[in-house]
Amino acid sequence: MPNSEANCMCGAVSIIAEEMNPKFTVCHCQSCxxxxxxxxxxxxxxxxxxxxxxxxxxxxxxxxxxxxGFCTECGTNLFYKFKATGEYNMPVGLFPNLKGLxxxxxxxxxxxxxxxxxxxxxxxxxxxxxxxxxxAEM
Length: 138
Prior knowledge:
8-stranded mixed beta sheet; mainly beta
């Protein structure tokens, strides 16, 4: 995918992601649902991410393996960043001009509330599988 550009709601933070995986993920964990008020639709953006207005970005260490970033002016959720690799996962909705995306994976599928489901088939990882995966990487 070509460079993708995004801004927070107030425009204080601008993002250019040079690499973007057209297969996005969905996370059902309680942290993601608390962070954004719903599940997290995340597009993988790798490490080649340029952020302008970094002085307006607040980081929150949300787990032992990742931090979340948001705009201090308007509160827009900007990214989920893995500590070990520096890779960014960003909300799909930040990027207004994405085309051809496909849901590829659902994380914490065993934590998905009963009030929603998806009809498309994807790979899924339970809490136990996620914890084993990230514990092995540390």
